[in-house]
Amino acid sequence: MPAKLSTHVLDLTTGRPAAGMVIQLLRTGRDPVLLKTITTNADGRTDGPLLDEATMAVGSYELVFHVREYFTGRGVECTFLDQVPIRFAITDAAAGYHVPLLVTPWAYSTYRGS
Fold this sequence. Notes:
Helix content: under 10%
Shape: globular
Order of helices and strands: EEEEEEHEEEE
Strand order of the largest sheet: 3-2-9-10
Oligomer: single chain
CATH superfamily: Transthyretin/hydroxyisourate hydrolase domain
């Protein structure tokens, strides 16, 4: 498996990919750095990896999923969740990391995928 960081989002209210959700990737630590802001495509994925072989580095990271903006933009009331931050560590810069989000306006789940 090539070195990369990827994600996808599934909208569990519809059982479909969450197209059009804004996601921020930050390198965390003493001075957090915003690495990129992307929007999911029609498959609820990003167009290409968030980090690839050239940009993967050991360290602490955070994905921030803008779920309230996503749901309210589709006419779904979302008063409980706003942004969902997922903090994780990359311990092997040569490995693949996949961090999916399964989400509703009231709950979410994630895991380290393959």
